[in-house]
């Protein structure tokens, strides 16, 4: 560990230079802190007749300038941080030179280099990443909640398993176990009754690792987490233990699955990032959306259909991703339900987390492809009181409860259906590529897996 922390400071011309110098001197006086360079990021109000040479002279330190004094010199910031081996970037600038959006952009660029970004009342740190995996791996993360991350994880796990890579999944959730929990999806039969037994024991049997195990029929490891920071770190998690457990189980490839917008704090060889086209565009293009997107080797854009997202919005998202991460493959998709059991000629009550606005599309898909009659739907799997009301409304008309394995799927949907004598069938969500000039999704996923294995072998 360095005895002295190299600091790069960002300053502007909206402060009198003697005031800025006083702030720099104060920072330099701190023990174990040394200002190695200053980046002038704009502003002329308080400069009077000062030239660049005058700024350097008055600040008494190396000062770097961008080409255009009216624009934030993002590239210069990156170059200075790299060239001076900075340990931290301290922002001493202010409005009107930087606003919230510009500061988030600076933060994303600096954090991407593994360097903290600080200011008078904020500190952003790079993601925590424990380097513990002893097998090739990839990380699946998302830009938000309810954008289909677990569905894509399960799809990827099935595909990787089918291609004989022998994977396991390590997933973290807000209802995960106190100690990492192995579910042998490859060995046990996960029935509604079995999940009810787990729920009765106090297990959150609809947690992501149970869904992965049921949908993919592979070994999964469940972990917990609490809190989700703006960059993606969590407050507490036992995922490091889960990753160490993955080293010991019978698996040759590890999929680390995120939770919501929280990112697994485990170093992996490659990354798949999910972006929800249903999200506000500002959450993708601003804040720490770009930070997540730039991590990706493959970006899967989900929910790419109206009314969740217009074709124009999907195109804008695709173009934005390609602009900031030109090396990543971008594939746009929609989800379609796939029952895990036979529902032909049956009256179905369908419970989902998909928004009510898309229910007609899902009903049509189920009835056309699986020969059932959907007598009722509820989009409230994650809202127990409203879910209960919808079940009571439709349960007398149904033969089958068709439900995703999420949220209250076990302790409410499954429980109430079994109590009423209904059959329970769980439902997967399959990503389907929308029309356009895209790589085939299975090929793109396997390409990432092969790349992860290659990276692991080259960096033992």
Automatic annotation (TrEMBL):
The keyword Ligase applies. InterPro entries: Cyc_diphosphoglycerate_synth, P-loop_NTPase. GO terms for biological process: gluconeogenesis. One of its GO terms (cellular component) is cytoplasm. It catalyses: (2R)-2,3-bisphosphoglycerate + ATP + H(+) = cyclic (2R)-2,3-bisphosphoglycerate + ADP + phosphate. Its main location: cytoplasm. Catalyzes the formation of cyclic 2,3-diphosphoglycerate (cDPG) by formation of an intramolecular phosphoanhydride bond at the expense of ATP. Belongs to the cyclic 2,3-diphosphoglycerate synthetase family. This is Cyclic 2,3-diphosphoglycerate synthetase. The gene is cpgS.
């Amino acid at each position: 560990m360095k005895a002295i922390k190299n600091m790069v400071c960002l300053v502007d011309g909206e402060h009198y230079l003697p005031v800025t110098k006083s702030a720099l001197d104060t920072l330099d006086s701190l023990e174990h802190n040394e200002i190695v360079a200053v980046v002038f990021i704009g502003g002329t109000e308080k400069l009077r007749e000062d030239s660049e040479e005058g700024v350097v002279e008055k600040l008494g330190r190396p000062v770097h300038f961008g080409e255009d004094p009216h624009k934030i010199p993002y590239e210069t910031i990156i170059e200075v941080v790299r060239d001076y081996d900075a340990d931290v970037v301290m922002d001493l600038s202010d409005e009107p030179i930087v606003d919230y959006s510009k500061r988030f952009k600076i933060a994303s660029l600096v954090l991407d280099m593994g360097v903290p970004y600080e200011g008078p009342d904020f500190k952003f740190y790079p993601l925590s990443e424990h380097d513990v995996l002893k097998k090739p791996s990839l990380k699946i993360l998302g830009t938000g909640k309810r954008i289909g991350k677990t569905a894509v994880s399960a799809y990827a796990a099935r595909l990787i398993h089918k291609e004989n890579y022998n994977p396991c999944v390590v997933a973290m959730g807000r209802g995960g176990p106190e100690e990492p929990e192995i579910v042998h999806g490859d060995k046990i039969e996960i029935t509604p009754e079995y999940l009810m037994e787990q729920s009765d024991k106090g297990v959150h049997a609809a947690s992501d690792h149970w869904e992965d195990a049921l949908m993919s029929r592979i070994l999964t490891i469940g972990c917990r987490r609490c809190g989700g920071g703006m960059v993606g770190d969590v407050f507490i998690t036992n995922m490091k233990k889960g990753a160490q457990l993955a080293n010991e189980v019978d698996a040759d490839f590890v999929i680390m699955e995120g939770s919501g917008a929280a990112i697994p704090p485990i170093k992996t060889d490659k990354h798949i990032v999910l972006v929800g086209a249903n999200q506000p565009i500002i959450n993708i293009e601003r804040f720490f959306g770009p930070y997540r997107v730039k991590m990706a080797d493959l970006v899967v854009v989900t929910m790419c259909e109206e009314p969740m997202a217009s074709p124009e919005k999907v195109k804008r998202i695709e173009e934005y991703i390609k602009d900031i991460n030109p090396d990543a493959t971008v594939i746009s998709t929609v989800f379609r339900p796939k029952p895990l059991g036979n529902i032909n000629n049956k009256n179905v009550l369908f419970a989902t987390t998909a928004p009510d606005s898309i229910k007609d599309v899902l009903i049509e898909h189920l009835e056309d492809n699986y020969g059932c009659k959907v007598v009722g739907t509820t989009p409230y799997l994650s809202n127990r009181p409203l879910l209960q009301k919808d079940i009571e409304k439709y349960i007398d008309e149904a033969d089958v409860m068709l439900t995703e394995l999420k949220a209250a799927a076990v302790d409410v949907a499954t429980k109430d259906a079994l109590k009423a004598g209904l059959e329970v069938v769980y439902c997967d969500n399959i990503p389907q590529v929308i029309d356009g000039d895209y790589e085939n999704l299975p090929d793109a996923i396997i390409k990432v897996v092969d790349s992860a294995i290659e990276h692991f072998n080259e960096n033992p």
